[in-house]
């Protein structure tokens, strides 16, 4: 009798088949929270590719590289070692051995990351790194970002594109800022978010774009738990197909 899809994982007999899931979309649509939770539930690894672009940006900012000078950014693109942990319960990232998990979330990095990630030498270096990390996870991986389904892993088993209204996204990000700083300007948060979307969607090399074969999920009216459930169902259906 043929093995069921649940029994075809060569690494963990009896577990589900390895699966590579690409989750893309603009800021605040729930990519990181959903990807982490889904990976934890299904025993998959997790890669936050935005954190990689943030880490290289942070390294450049702290090493005197002018992030608005594309030639200087390209020249420095190969210098820092960027290492991500892929445990969904403890995601982390280092740049040249220094823990970057906290500093990559500052406003300074957020404001500079689109310019740095638009530089082709940065993208080719980080894309190569992402492919090698995904290839080293025999249990499967959830990889989230902007160009995973279109460029990094065009052969992913499942591609999901998350969307949400600008108002919902600003409210979510605003909630985070309020928890961190005690206050948040929702209008300014929305403006900054839309500015970053425009930059990420209009760059020449692998812009933020829904892959033709991605499943689009509008999360505006959904709770995080509903989005997680929806993605888990899509993955399990895919593994059974
Ligand atoms: N469907 C949802 N409803 C309400 N809040 C959400 C939802 N999805 C995510 N969030 C919250 O919104 C914030 C941003 O989510 P995050 O996963 O970081 O988005 P992204 O990775 O797409 O930028 C987090 O605080 C998260 O808990
Ligand atoms: N695959 C990716 C992931 C992120 N980026 C760039 C563009 C994004 O604005 C930044 C930061 O991504 P990140 O996912 O951390 O952003 P948010 O959590 O949505 O605020 O990195 C990219 O160019 N390609």
TrEMBL record:
Q: Which residues form the Cytidylate kinase domain?
A: 21-235
Tell me the GO molecular function terms: ATP binding; dCMP kinase activity
Q: Which reaction does it catalyse?
A: CMP + ATP = CDP + ADP; dCMP + ATP = dCDP + ADP
The EC number(s) attached to this protein equal 2.7.4.25
Amino acids binding ATP = 25-33
GO BP terms: namely: nucleobase-containing small molecule interconversion; pyrimidine nucleotide metabolic process
According to its UniProt record, what is one Pfam family this protein matches? Cytidylate_kin
Task: Give GO cellular component annotations, separated by semicolons.
Answer: cytosol
Q: What class of enzyme is it?
A: transferase
Its annotated compartments are:
Cytoplasm
Q: Tell me yes or no: is Cell membrane among this UniProt entry's keywords.
A: no
Q: Which CDD domains match?
A: CMPK
Arranged from A to Z, the UniProt key words for this protein are: ATP-binding, Cytoplasm, Kinase, Nucleotide-binding, Transferase
Q: Which family does it belong to?
A: Belongs to the cytidylate kinase family. Type 1 subfamily.
* Name of the protein in question: Cytidylate kinase
Q: Which organism is it from?
A: Streptomyces tardus
Q: Taxonomic lineage per UniProt?
A: Bacteria, Bacillati, Actinomycetota, Actinomycetes, Kitasatosporales
């Amino acid at each position: 009798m043929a093995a069921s899809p649940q029994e075809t994982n060569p690494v963990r007999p009896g577990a589900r088949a390895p699966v590579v899931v690409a989750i893309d979309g603009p800021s605040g649509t729930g990519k990181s929270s959903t990807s982490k939770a889904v990976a934890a539930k299904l025993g998959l690894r997790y890669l936050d590719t935005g954190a990689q672009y943030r880490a290289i940006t942070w390294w450049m900012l702290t090493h005197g590289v002018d992030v608005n000078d594309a030639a200087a950014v390209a020249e420095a693109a190969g210098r820092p070692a960027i290492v991500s942990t892929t445990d969904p319960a403890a995601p982390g990232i280092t740049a040249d051995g220094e823990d970057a998990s906290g500093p990559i979330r500052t406003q300074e990095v957020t404001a500079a990351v689109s310019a740095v990630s638009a530089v082709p030498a940065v993208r080719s270096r980080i894309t190569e790194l992402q492919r090698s990390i995904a290839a080293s996870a025999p249990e499967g991986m959830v990889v989230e970002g902007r160009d995973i389904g279109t460029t990094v892993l065009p052969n992913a088993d499942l591609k999901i594109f998350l969307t949400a209204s600008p108002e919902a996204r600003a409210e979510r990000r605003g909630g985070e800022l309020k928890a961190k700083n005690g206050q948040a300007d929702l209008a300014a948060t929305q403006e900054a978010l839309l500015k970053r979307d425009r930059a990420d969607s209009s760059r020449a090399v692998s812009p933020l774009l829904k892959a033709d074969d991605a499943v689009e999920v509008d999360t505006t009216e959904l709770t995080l738990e509903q989005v997680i459930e929806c993605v888990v169902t899509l993955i399990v259906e895919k593994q059974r197909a």
